[in-house]
Amino acid sequence: MAERNAEVIVVGAGLAGLVAAAELADAGKQVLLLDQEGEQNLGGQAYWSFGGLFFVDSPEQRRLGIRDSLDLAQRDWEVSAAFDRPEDHWPRQWAQAYLEFAAGEKRAWLHAQGMRWFPAVGWAERGGAGAGAPGNSVPRFHVTWGTGPGVLEPFERRVRAHAQAGRITFRFRHRVRGLVVTGGVVQGVHGEVLEPSGVARGAPSSRVVQGDFEYHAGAVLLTSGGIGGNHDLVRQYWPADRLGPVPATLLSGVPQHVDGLMQQQAAAQGAHLINPDRMWHYTEGLRNWDPVWPRHAIRVLPGPSSLWLDPTGRRLPFPHIPGASTYDTLRHVTTHGYPHTWFLLNRAIIKKEFALSGSEQNPDLTGRDLALTLKRVGKNPTAPVQAFMDRGEDFVVRGTLRDLVQGMNDLTGEPLVDYDVVAAEVRDRDLQVRNAAGKDPQLAVVRGARAILSEKLIRVAKPAPLLDPAGGPLIAVRLTVLTRKSLGGLETDLQGRVLRPGGEAFPGLYAAGEVAGFGGGGYHGYRALEGTFLGGCLFSGRVAGRAIAAAL
Fold it and tell me: Which part of the chain is the FAD-dependent oxidoreductase 2 FAD-binding domain (predicted)?
C-alpha cells in the first residue's frame, strides 16, 4: 500500500471544500487541499456571489412581521422541486435535512462565527402562479453583510489558521485528472501540476503542465463544483424535451474554470452521476461591460414591476413576471426560441428595483459601508446600475416610447420590436395603475409585495404609469440566458458518501457542494428557492467533513 500523504484529500478549494477542510482539521485530521487554480481564487464561485442565504423563521423575518415556518418552507420546496424520479430518493432526504438545518441551527452556527445579515430580507423566487405552485411564499433571501466574501471569511480564517498550525496543506495549481482506485477502494488522486499563474481572480489561467502528482489518503472528498463555465457540457446535458433547443447564444455567470471535468471523471470511474439534465440558468443576463472571464454576464435581480417583453415587444404571459419563477420563465423563453427578451421600465423603477447579482456589483454591502448602503434609498440608481446604464451594451435609454422602440431595434440590428404592440402593452398596463384593485395580476403581485415593510421601503416601486414624465426616461434592457448552476450531480447518501449506480457506497469517496448537486445528487429537484446554493455548500461541506472525521 502506498504511503499516505494525508488522512483526507479535499479536491476543490471553494466554499464546500473550505467548510469541510475546517471541520476535518477541527477534528484533528491532516488535510491536503488541492485546487487547479491559484491561491488568488481561494473560495471559488462563492466569492463572486451576492451572499444570499436561505433561513426559515429567522429573527430578521420576524422583525419585519414575516410569518414563516418549517411547514411552509417544506411545502414551498416540495412543489418547486417536483421530485419525480427513482433517483430522487437521496435528494429528497437531503432536502428535508437541509430544511431542518435552515430552520434550526444554521443561523446560530454562522452567527457564532461572526457572520451578519442585512436587515431587509429579500424575496427571490416569489412565484405568483398560485398557493400550490412553485416559489417562496415569503421573503427568505438573507443577504450577508460582506456578500460572498463575507460568507467565505469565517471559513477561510479557520482554514488558514489550521494551515499555519500544520493540519491543512494547500496545493494550488494542482489539477486532479483521476482517482486512484485499488481493489474498488478510492485511495487517492492523481493529476497534473500547472505552471504558476498570477492572473486576476476569475480570469482564465494557463493550462501549461509542469509535472505530475499522485497523492494518497484514507478518504477523498470531491468539492470541485459544477459545469456552468463549460458550455460544451451544458449543451450536452441540456434537456431539450423540457426546455426546447439550447439557445444559440449563452452567456456565462461563472468563471471558465467551473468546468465539471472532475465530476465527469469520477462518473467515468464508477461514481453515479444523476440528474445532469437539471440545471439552473437565468434569463436576465447582461453582458458585463467590464468582463473578467469569457462571455462574462451579470444577472439582474429584479423587483416585480418591469414589463417583460418578447423579442417583438409583446408582454410575456402571466405568471412570467420579473423575479417570479426562474425555471418556468426560462422554459417559456427557450421553448419559444427567443434569442433574447426585454425589460421595459423607467428611471423610477430601476432606481428602486434593479439590483445586480455579485459581490463586485454591490460595493456597499461587500465593503460593509453603511453610509454607502443607505444611499440605496436615495433618488438615484446605485453606481453599478448607473454604470451599466451608461456603458452596458444591453441598455437603451430614451425620452419617448417611440424613440425607445427605435433604439431597441437599432441595438439588435433588426426591426423585430413593433411600436404599436409595445404601445398597446404599456397603455393596458398603465390604465390599471390608477385604481387600488384592477385586473392586472402583475400589479396585484406588486401591491402584495408592498404590504411588507422592507419591500415597500427599498425594493418595490409604488405603482405608477410607465409613461408618467415624473418617472424619468424610459429604459429597455435586453436580456440573454446565462449559465449558472448544476442542480444534478454525484449521488451521495446523508453522510456525503458517493454511491455507485447500484446504490452501494464507493469506498473512500465522498462529495459535497455543487459537484453533488449540493447534496444527494440534486436536492433542489427542478427548481431552486434561492439562497440555497451557498447554503447547500455550507451544509453538505459540514456534513461530509464531520462524517469523514468520524469514519477515519
Answer: 8-534
Q: Give dist(CA 477, CA 183) in Å, integer.
A: 57
Measured CA angle at 546 (ends 149, 177), to 5 deg? 70
Q: How far apart are CA 480 and CA 417, in angstroms?
A: 16
Helix (H) or strand (E) holding 495: none
Name beta bridge partners: 214: 190
> Grid coordinates standing for 287?
453582458
pLDDT at position 173 over 60: yes
- In the chain, % helix, strand, coil (3-state, to 5) comes to 35, 20, 40
Residue with cell 434569463: 283
Grid cell at residue 357: 447579482
In terms of Cβ atoms closer than 10 Å to its own Cβ (0-12, 13-18, 19+), residue 263 is buried
Amino acid at 44: G
What is the structure's pLDDT at 434?
87
Whether the per-residue pLDDT at 285 is higher than 90: the answer is yes
The helix/strand/coil state of 468 is: coil
What is the per-residue pLDDT for 92?
A: 98
Q: What span, in angstroms and rounded, lies between the C-alpha atoms of 172 and 174?
A: 5
Residue with grid cell 481564487, as numbered in its chain: 41
In the three-class reduction of DSSP (H, G, I as helix; E, B as strand; rest coil), residue 78 is classed as helix
Question: Considering only CA atoms, which of 441, 397, 483 is closest in space to residue 304?
Answer: 441
Closest CA to 447 of 463, 434, 430: 463
Give CA angle at 109 (105, 112), nearest 5°: 140
Q: Strand locations in 228-318, DSSP E?
A: 251-252, 273-274, 279-287, 297-302, 307-309
Q: Which three cell numbers stand for residue 319?
A: 405568471
**Is a pLDDT exceeding 70 seen at residue 48?**
yes
Which pLDDT score is estimated for 311? 98
The H or E element that residue 490 is part of is strand 489-490
Degrees to nearest 5, angle at CA 122 with 366 and 449: 145
Parallel, antiparallel, or unpaired: how do β-strands 395-398 and 209-216 relate? unpaired
> What number of other Cβ atoms are within 10 A of residue 148's Cβ?
27
pLDDT band at 162 (very low <50, low <70, confident <90, very high): very high
